[in-house]
Write a structure and sequence with these properties.
Strand content: under 5%
Largest sheet: none
Number of strands: 0
Radius of gyration: 12 Å
Number of helices: 5
Shape: globular
Number of domains: 1
């Protein structure tokens, strides 16, 4: 059994990359900076993106990016 909150397959990995790249593009920063913010400064990647993959990946890009920016704001994540 896979540990909860870990990326389980290629679809989830592709979605995580999509999220990181699109948040980076919206904020005008590098994807590596967003990845670090989502993994080192917070648990957004494994504590939010991966667990809510099923409902979140069905939404449009703007919705997803706005949702992630809200989560960053709520958790006090600054770039």
């Amino acid at each position: 059994m896979m540990p909860e909150g870990r990326i389980k397959n290629a679809r989830e990995l592709e979605f995580a990359i999509f999220c990181i790249e699109n948040v980076a593009a919206r904020l005008g920063v590098g994807a590596e900076q967003v990845y670090k913010a989502f993994t080192e400064k917070s648990d957004i990647l494994y504590g939010y993106i991966v667990p809510v993959y099923e409902p979140l990946h069905t939404q449009g890009k703007d919705y997803i990016v706005n949702e992630l920016l809200e989560v960053m704001e709520e958790r006090g994540v600054r770039l």
